[in-house]
C-alpha cells in the first residue's frame, strides 16, 4: 500500500515536471530576445531605429534553432519606433538582455539622451548595456553580417571588450553614461565603431563628447591610449609605439600612476593643470641592432619626451572639442569651490593651460639586453 502511494506521488511529480518543461519551452520560443539596438537621425526630423533579435524556433525534443533577425522602423520618437518594430515581431519582445546600443554620429551630434530616455525610464531597460557611437550610420553597423558565426551584437561586444583590455577605448554602460552626462566637471568619452572593410568592424577610436552631444572630434589608435592613460585608465595592458632612428620601439605598459595638480595665478586667476603620468613596463619590440646594450634610464627619457609630444596633440584636440575628458573641472570644483562658482566652465575650459608630464620607467627589455 505504501509502495503504491509512493509510486503515485512519483508519477505525479514526473508529469508535473514534464508539463512545466513544455510550458517553459513554449514561453522561451514565444520570446524574441533583443540583443542590439541602433538609432540614427532620419529624414524630416524622424528617428530611425533598428534592432537585432535572437529568435528561438523549436525543433522538438527540447532542441532549438537560433536565428538572428534584423528589423528597422522610423518615427517621431524611440517609443514610436519601438512600437512599430514590436508589431513586426511575433511573440513577446524582451529588451532586458540588450548587449549593445549604437548611436549614429549625426544623431549623436544632436544629443544622445533623447533616443535613450525611454530605456532609462523602463523597468525592463538593461542599464548594463554598452553604448557606442558609430562612424556613419549605426544601422549599417548593426545590420552587419555575423562575426565568426556569432550574432552581430555578441561579436561587437567581444570586439569592445578586447579594445578595452588593450586600453584603446572605455567600456561605458547606460548607467555610467547617465551619471557622466550630468557631471558638470567632466565630459564623457565613448567608443567609436566603424566599418574597417566590407567584411570586418573595428573599435579603435574615441568620440569626444560635449555634455550629451558628440563634438564631432575623435581620437584613434595610440592617441586613444594616450588619452585614457591621462585619465588614469589602464586596461589589462597598453602598448605605445615610438619612432626611433632605426625604426620603431614598442613599450608595453603594465602599471600606471596618474596624478593631476592645479596652479591658480593669484593676479589673473589663470588656471594651469599638470597631468603627471608614470608608466611602468617593458620593451617588447625594438627594431635596432639585436644584442646592443640598452641604457634603460636614457631610453626612458627619450620615450617620455615622445609621449609628452603625443599627449600635447591629444590635449589640443580635447580643448578644440570643448571636452573635459580628464575631469579637470571636477578637481577645480573641489579644490577651488569659490572660483568654480564664478566660472562658466563650458566657455573657459578652452583657455586653461594643460601640461602633460609623462615618465616612462623601463623595468625589462625581455630576454635581450
Automatic annotation (TrEMBL):
User: Please, which domain of life does this record's source organism belong to?
Assistant: Bacteria
Q: Where in the cell is it found?
A: Membrane
Gene Ontology biological-process annotations = spore germination
Record keywords, A-Z: Germination, Lipoprotein, Membrane, Palmitate, Signal
The record's listing under InterPro entries reads:
GerAC_N (IPR057336), Spore_GerAC-like (IPR008844), Spore_GerAC-like_C (IPR046953), Spore_GerAC_C_sf (IPR038501)
Assigned GO CC terms? membrane
Membrane topology value: Lipid-anchor
Q: Which residues form the Spore germination protein N-terminal domain?
A: 24-194
- One of the Pfam families matching this protein, by short name: Spore_GerAC
Chain ranges of the Spore germination GerAC-like C-terminal domain: 204-366
Q: Which family does it belong to?
A: Belongs to the GerABKC lipoprotein family.
Q: What's the protein here called?
A: Ger(X)C family germination protein
- Which organism is the protein's source? Paenibacillus taihuensis
Amino acid at each position: 500500500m505504501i509502495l503504491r502511494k509512493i509510486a503515485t506521488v512519483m508519477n505525479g511529480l514526473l508529469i508535473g515536471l514534464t508539463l512545466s518543461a513544455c510550458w517553459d519551452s513554449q514561453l522561451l520560443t514565444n520570446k524574441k530576445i533583443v540583443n542590439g539596438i541602433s538609432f540614427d537621425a532620419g529624414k524630416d526630423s524622424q528617428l530611425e531605429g533598428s534592432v537585432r533579435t535572437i529568435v528561438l524556433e523549436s525543433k522538438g525534443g527540447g532542441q532549438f534553432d537560433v536565428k538572428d533577425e534584423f528589423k528597422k522602423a522610423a518615427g517621431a520618437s524611440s517609443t514610436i519606433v519601438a512600437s512599430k518594430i514590436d508589431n513586426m515581431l511575433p511573440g513577446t519582445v524582451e529588451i532586458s538582455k540588450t548587449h549593445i546600443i549604437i548611436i549614429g554620429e549625426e544623431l549623436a551630434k544632436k544629443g544622445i539622451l533623447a533616443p535613450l530616455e525611454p530605456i532609462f525610464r523602463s523597468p525592463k531597460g538593461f542599464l548594463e548595456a554598452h553604448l557606442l557611437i558609430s562612424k556613419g550610420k549605426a544601422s549599417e553597423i548593426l545590420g552587419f553580417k555575423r562575426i565568426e558565426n556569432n550574432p552581430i551584437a555578441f561579436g561587437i561586444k567581444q570586439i569592445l571588450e578586447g579594445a578595452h583590455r588593450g586600453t584603446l577605448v572605455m567600456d561605458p554602460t547606460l548607467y555610467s553614461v547617465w551619471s557622466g552626462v550630468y557631471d558638470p566637471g567632466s565630459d564623457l568619452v565613448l567608443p567609436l565603431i566603424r566599418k574597417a572593410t566590407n567584411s570586418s568592424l573595428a573599435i579603435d577610436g574615441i568620440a569626444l563628447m560635449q555634455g550629451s552631444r558628440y563634438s564631432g572630434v575623435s581620437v584613434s589608435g595610440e592617441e586613444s591610449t594616450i588619452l585614457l592613460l591621462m585619465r588614469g585608465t589602464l586596461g589589462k595592458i597598453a602598448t605605445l609605439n615610438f619612432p626611433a632612428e632605426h625604426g620603431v620601439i614598442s613599450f608595453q605598459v603594465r602599471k600606471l600612476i596618474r596624478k593631476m595638480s592645479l596652479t591658480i595665478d593669484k593676479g589673473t586667476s589663470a588656471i594651469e593643470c599638470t597631468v603627471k603620468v608614470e608608466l611602468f613596463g617593458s620593451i617588447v619590440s625594438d627594431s635596432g641592432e639585436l644584442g646592443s646594450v640598452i641604457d634603460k634610464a636614457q631610453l626612458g627619457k627619450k620615450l617620455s619626451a615622445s609621449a609628452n609630444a603625443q599627449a600635447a596633440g591629444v590635449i589640443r584636440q580635447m580643448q578644440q572639442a570643448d571636452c573635459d575628458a580628464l575631469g579637470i573641472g571636477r578637481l577645480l570644483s573641489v579644490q577651488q569651490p569659490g572660483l568654480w562658482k564664478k566660472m562658466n566652465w563650458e566657455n573657459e575650459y578652452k583657455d586653461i593651460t594643460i601640461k602633460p608630464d609623462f615618465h616612462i620607467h623601463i623595468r625589462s627589455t625581455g630576454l635581450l639586453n
